[in-house]
Structures are given as structure tokens and as C-alpha cells.
Amino acid sequence: MPKGKHFELDMTNGAILPQLIRFSLPLIATSVLQLLYNAADVAVVGRFAGSEALAAVGSTGSLINLLTNLFIGLSLGGNVVIAHAHGAGDHKAVSRAVHTTITLSVVSGVLVMILGLIASRPMLHLMGSPDDVIDLAALYMRIFFLGMPFNMLYNFGAGILRAMGDTRRPLFYLSISGLVNVLLNLVLVIGCHMGVAGVAIATVASQVLSSVFVMLYLLRTEECIRVDLKKLTLDKKYVKEILRIGLPAGIQSTVFNISNVTIQSTVNAQGSIVMAG
User: Fold this and answer.
1) What does the H/E/C string look like for 87-116?
2) Contacts of 131 (CB under 8 A, 6+ apart)
3) Helix, coil or strand: residue 226
């Protein structure tokens, strides 16, 4: 794992444009990698698991990308609050905001997981998923939602690192997890013949791994963002600030994806053959 302060950028010193580019490029790459998880699943099932499996996984892509962008936007709330406290030199405020951010990510993740397990099939029905695909699509979605607490934990934890000017560690962690996702896809689909369930399990496993990487760093770092499990709490002041900033950012991030969900619904109406094509 990468170590050392050279992964963190001090945006207050030096030329602005080079610093901004160095900060932004890993951030963009990280967002793209997260959106490629479902694409990797589609590629593997399309090659090795048949057209129905391909249609099932492909039909979930727009919903999953919508949720991914929503969570990336939500994590911006914690990012901004922590960065503001860090810039003010208030290490106690940084620590309180960090512990609130981590707790909020887990609580939110569990709530979304429960909601997703209940609502997966109804959501797919609303999108017009055909009868010969909906069972597999619902299976994929439910397994995906089981990993939601880890997905949220990674995104909010990565937001904490970005608040300190570190966009490269989250990219490094996600790159390793992405490789694990692809390898597990191949093993579970080709070797274990698990089809849709296999790629979904691989995705969840890779999300668990990325969240473990982030948490290990936050638990071990000597900086003010260090996490002490005994201090995890929901400070009302910081919860309010995180949601005030994060919710609008998350909603804004999903606007384009809402149109993709509408398009996918139109495709679903044409049947599984068109969906797989």
C-alpha cells in the first residue's frame, strides 16, 4: 500500500493549475473505475454465461450507476466539512467530522441495503424487465445491495482522504479491488459456473476489499483523520452539514443517470433478446 505524505497535496502552496491537475486526474479515474464494475460483470457473463444472464446484468447497469453517482456525491459532504476544518487548523473538529462521516456511511449503507433487498424486484418491474430476465436481474441486484455498507464506507472513507488532498490512495485501492473483481468474475463464472450470482458476489467482494483498504489506513495513520472505533458517533452538527452539502451534490450527480434509467426501461420493453443485443 502507498505510504507517506507525498500522496497528499498542499493546495495552498505552489502554482494552482498543476496542483489542480494532479488532484483531479486520480479523482476522475477513480469515478470511472467505479462505474466500470458493472461493465466488467456484463463483459464476463456475456462471454461465458449466455444471453439471459447478459440481459439480466445489463438491465441493472443504469440503476447501479445511478446509485454509484449518488453515493459519490453524498461523500462530497463529508469531504467538504473535513477539508474546511482541516484548513482552519481545528484538529478536534476534523476528528469529530471524520468519526461522524464513518458512522454515517455505515448507518446509511445498512439502511440502503435493507431498502434495496426489499425493493429490487419492484424497481425492475417498474423498469419493465421481461419475465424471463427479472429473476436473474433481481438476484444480481439483491447480492449487489448486500455490499452496500462496504460501498458507502469506501466512498465516504475515500472522501476523507481527498479532504486531506490525497486522491491517489483511493485510486490505488480501487485499482487493486477492480483487478480482484475481474479475476473473481472469471473464477466464479467459468470455474464455478455461478453465472449472474458469481459476478455479483465478485463485485461485493471487491467492494469489501476496497473498504478494508481505506479503513486500515484510517485506523493506522498518525494524522488527525485517524479513526478510533471507540469514538464513532453521529454528531448532529456534522450530520446536518454533511447532508446539507452532500444531498444536493448526490442528486445533481444522478440527473444524467435518470435519463439512462428511462432509456433502459424502453429497451426492456423490447424483450430479452434486444436487451442482450
Assistant:
1) HCCCHHHHHHHHHHHHHHHHHHHHHHHHHH
2) none
3) coil
The per-residue b/e assignment along 144-176, b for 16 or more CB within 10 angstroms, e otherwise, is: bbbbbbbbbbbbbbbbbbbbbbbbbbbbebbee
- ∠ at Cα 199 (193, 202), nearest 5°? 110
Helix axes 131-146, 195-220, angle to 10 degrees: 20
pLDDT at 150: 95
Cα–Cα distance measured from residue 63 to residue 2, given in angstroms and rounded to the nearest whole number: 33
184 is written with which cell numbers?
A: 473473481
pLDDT of residue 12: 54
Vertex 253 angle, CA 251 and 258, to 5°: 80
**What is the arithmetic mean of pLDDT over 202-228?**
94
Name the one residue in this structure whose C-alpha cell is 426492456.
268
